[in-house]
């Protein structure tokens, strides 16, 4: 949720979608400018036209309050009365004062796509949605890894560098090149590296 954003930052993001990128925007975004002045014309402010939606009423949820979603999930923390202005509804609210109102939308913008999440989906629903967005955008996984293990890759002139962060309470085994080296320990690998619970590994994979 990018509540405060200046005009340049908003143009950078919306232009990215217009040029063929995929933009996913969370609720309560683009509401105010760099001076914390509310953007006029309806919410979500700076992103309204790119997302193809307009919100005219906000419905924050109580800490223990949940709304059912049409995809079988639930939303917490936030909801809003959304009107489609070019976007397509992907998921709607199933109950409460906003039953039937879109909760998650998808909009074609330029040669790209802009998604809007007008609520906070439960973790499994959010993970499935982000996986769908990633797949439709043609983005491949850096490396197959257990849930809760973060993998980032940086490319050098003659090797790739994998940064593996294990956020779980159990050891994780990640496949790597047989010629790879784990740089923090200096040890070569044999086709996989074990990242202990709560720990980090950095792997150099020669190309």
Explain what you see.
The protein is mainly beta. It has two domains: 7-136, Rossmann fold, CATH 3.40.50.880; 149-206, Golgi alpha-mannosidase II (Immunoglobulin-like), CATH 2.60.40. It is built from three helices and 16 strands. It has helices at residues 7-18, 48-51, 123-136; strands at residues 22-26, 53-58, 67-68, 74-76, 80-84, 88-92, 102-109, 112-117, 120-121, 149-155, 159-166, 172-175, 181-182, 187-188, 192-195, 200-206. A five-stranded antiparallel β-sheet has the order 10-11-16-13-14, with no helix packed on it. It has a four-stranded mixed β-sheet with strand order 1-8-7-6, with helices on one face. It has a three-stranded antiparallel β-sheet with strand order 3-4-9. Strand 10 (149-155) and strand 11 form a beta hairpin. It is elongated and about 60 Å long.
Secondary-structure blueprint of this entry?
Blueprint: H1 7-18, E1 22-26, H2 48-51, E2 53-58, E3 67-68, E4 74-76, E5 80-84, E6 88-92, E7 102-109, E8 112-117, E9 120-121, H3 123-136, E10 149-155, E11 159-166, E12 172-175, E13 181-182, E14 187-188, E15 192-195, E16 200-206
Parallel strand pairs: 1-8
Antiparallel strand pairs: 2-5, 3-4, 4-9, 6-7, 7-8, 10-11, 11-16, 12-15, 13-14, 13-16
């Amino acid at each position: 949720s990018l509540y405060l954003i200046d005009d340049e930052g908003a143009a950078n993001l919306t232009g990215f979608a217009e040029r063929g990128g995929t933009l996913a925007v969370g609720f309560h975004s683009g509401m105010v400018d760099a001076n914390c002045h509310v953007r006029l014309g309806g919410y979500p402010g700076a992103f309204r036209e790119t997302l193809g939606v307009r919100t005219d009423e906000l419905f924050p949820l109580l800490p223990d309050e949940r709304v059912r979603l049409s995809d079988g999930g639930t939303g917490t923390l936030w909801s809003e009365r959304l009107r489609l202005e070019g976007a397509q509804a992907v998921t709607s609210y199933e109950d409460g004062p906003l039953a039937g109102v879109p909760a998650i939308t998808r909009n074609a913008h330029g040669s790209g796509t802009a998604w809007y999440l007008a609520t906070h989906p439960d973790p499994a629903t959010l993970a499935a949605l982000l996986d769908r967005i990633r797949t439709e955008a043609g983005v491949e996984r850096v490396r197959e890894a257990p849930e809760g293990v973060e993998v980032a890759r940086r490319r050098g002139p003659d090797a790739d560098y994998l940064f593996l962060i294990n956020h779980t309470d159990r050891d994780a085994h990640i496949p790597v090149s047989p010629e790879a080296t784990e740089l923090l320990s200096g040890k070569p690998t044999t086709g996989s590296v074990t990242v202990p619970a709560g720990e980090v590994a950095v792997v150099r994979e020669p190309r």
